[in-house]
Write a structure and sequence with these properties.
By secondary structure, the chain is of the alpha/beta class. The chain has helices at 13-19, 61-80, 96-108, 120-130, 158-171, 185-200, 215-232, 250-260, 297-311, 319-332, 343-346; strands spanning 2-3, 48-54, 85-91, 111-115, 137-139, 151-153, 176-182, 204-211, 241-244, 269-272, 291-294, 352-354, 357-361, 367-369, 371-376, 381-388. The strands form four sheets. Strands 1-3-2-4-5-6 form a six-stranded mixed β-sheet, with helices on both faces. Strands 8-7-9-10 form a four-stranded parallel β-sheet, with helices on both faces. Strands 11-15-16 form a three-stranded antiparallel β-sheet, with helices on one face.
Length: 407
């Protein structure tokens, strides 16, 4: 399937009508500098094709998310308004084998860059095909093992989120940390960087407890940690911060369990990862007032409004990654053939600016993002500290007329 501006397959006419009001300079979604706007000198005469790989077939949450990512990609085409860019949409079926086949088909139809898949395993399979044609992959994954050798991750690594929130808590005087992490791959990815971040910021780790994903088994894991927290309150070195690495499924289940176990926000500071960034997080009262890292919410709010006007529904949270990835590809498409999507172009020091703020790709395929610290409220999050980069580049420059936070 090839999507063109003005002839987007499977999108209501309402999209085109609404999109005429979307300026590329609106909000943080601006992607072009003056030299990069359509029609500039050096603009390619032939269509530039972007492959989009998503698990579009089947049923369930992944399919719903995939539909939202596809719509976000189409919205980027409309917003940036470059008629010479085409989107080739392929169903990767949510499997490594499907990703390989989808990449092969997209490249066979002329794709010069691949956006997607969602998973790290899918990205590795797609890259194995794309590498031979020197086609880079912008994956939505945050799996470090998938990055590099032509694969660039749009997702934020859990260790980057942990470093940001731990450093912020330490800066607020917190010294003794504990963590509650799921007994799965995500929990294991979080646990080790958590310990390292606490040590790096001058704190001490009192406990790291894993909890099973079954709701009826969570209490047994939480109670010993709650007891340790309460006992430490009578000492000279109380546990004063607890990291809870849980998202939309586990956070509401943990809320009554933590309350029953005596974990309260007035006794210690709760902190989280980017997994807290979902619309109904504030409905879990024990976590209200907790701190978590994430992009500045203003860009997301603006994006949600425009997406909702176009498609009549709220986008899934990952949709911003699709919008930004396609915007990056469109931005770079104005270069000459063979120079558009090179490693040098993708890793340019100026980086890029999108819905989720500023980001820059490292040579190893990892994205460096500017993360804010937010306080969870009943409705949304309040910015406690604006987005800040984790490292500063050697070269300073601006993009799209906006100064990046690391400048």
């Amino acid at each position: 399937m090839i999507c063109r501006l003005g002839a987007i397959t499977a999108v209501p006419l309402l999209v085109a009508a609404c999109a005429t009001n979307f300026g590329a300079s609106e909000g943080v979604t601006s992607a072009f500098t003056e030299q990069e706007k359509p029609g500039a000198v050096g603009q390619p005469k032939k269509p530039v094709r972007i492959g989009l790989l998503l698990p579009l077939s089947g049923y369930g949450s992944h399919t719903v998310t995939a539909k939202g990512l596809k719509q976000a990609a189409e919205l980027a085409l409309l917003d940036l308004n470059n008629p010479l860019v085409q989107l080739i949409v392929k169903d990767d079926k949510g499997t490594p084998q499907g990703a390989s086949q989808a990449a092969q088909e997209a490249i066979g139809e002329g794709a010069e860059i691949i956006v997607g898949p969602i998973t790290g395993e899918g990205a590795k399979s797609a890259a194995a095909v794309a590498r031979g044609s020197k086609v880079p992959v912008l994956s939505f994954s945050n799996d470090r093992n998938a990055a590099g050798d032509g694969v660039y991750l749009m997702g934020v690594l859990p260790e980057q989120e942990v470093e940001r929130i731990v450093a912020f808590a330490a800066g607020r005087g917190k010294r003794r940390f504990a963590a509650l992490v799921p007994d799965d791959g995500y929990g294991r990815v979080v646990a080790s960087p958590f310990k390292e971040a606490v040590a790096r910021n001058g704190g001490a780790v009192a406990a790291v407890t894993s909890f099973p994903l079954e709701a009826n088994a969570m209490l047994e894991a939480v109670q010993p940690l709650a007891g340790e927290v309460q006992q430490s309150g009578d000492s000279t070195t109380p546990i004063d911060v607890l990291l809870v690495a849980a998202g939309e499924t586990a956070l509401p289940q943990l809320d009554p369990i933590l309350t029953y176990a005596g974990i309260r926000s007035d006794r210690l500071q709760l902190i989280g990862t980017g997994a807290w960034d979902f619309p109904s997080a504030g409905r879990s009262p024990v976590f209200v007032g907790g701190w978590y890292p994430g992009p500045d919410p203003h860009g997301w709010t603006d994006f949600v409004q425009r997406f909702s006007r176009a498609f009549g529904q709220v986008p899934p949270r990952l949709a911003s990654l699709s919008y930004d990835a396609v915007s990056i590809a469109i931005t770079l498409s104005s270069a000459e053939p063979g120079q558009r999507f090179t490693a040098a172009a993708l890793t340019r020091p100026a980086g890029f600016t999108g819905v989720d703020g500023a980001l820059r790709f490292r040579a190893d395929g990892i994205s460096e993002r500017s993360l804010a610290v937010l306080e969870l409220q009943t409705f949304g999050g309040n910015v406690l500290e604006p987005a800040q980069p984790q490292e500063a580049p050697a070269e300073r420059s601006s993009f799209g007329g906006m100064r990046l936070p690391w400048q």
